[in-house]
Amino acid sequence: QVQLVESGGGLVQPGGALRLSCAASGPVFRFYSMGWYRQGPGGERELIAHITTAGITDYANSVKGRFSISRDDAKNTLYLQMNTLKPEDTADYYCNAVYNAGGSWHPFDYWGQGTQVTVSS
User: Phi and psi at residue 26, in whole multiples of 5°?
Assistant: First the structure.
């Protein structure tokens, strides 16, 4: 099991940028695919980006072209660079290890506290 601590959220104007970080504990971070999830008010927690252990990435259509996921295995850290932010990006953001089953990606049971992103003028 890995411990996760998200940071980097805050209030930003539309069109602005933020970089979120996810610090993971444990010696096996590099062996897991990782993902970023977000949950808006009253919404379902959805996977918006993931990166495999080989560095292959994919994104939800809502963020494709604007967000970039990356990982630094030496630092046990996952990042999400968010550019051209829109009000609809307002949500709580979470990271987690993910696994592929049935043609889709699923999170493990442990969640950190998340970090809140608010995009507003």
Answer: 100, 160
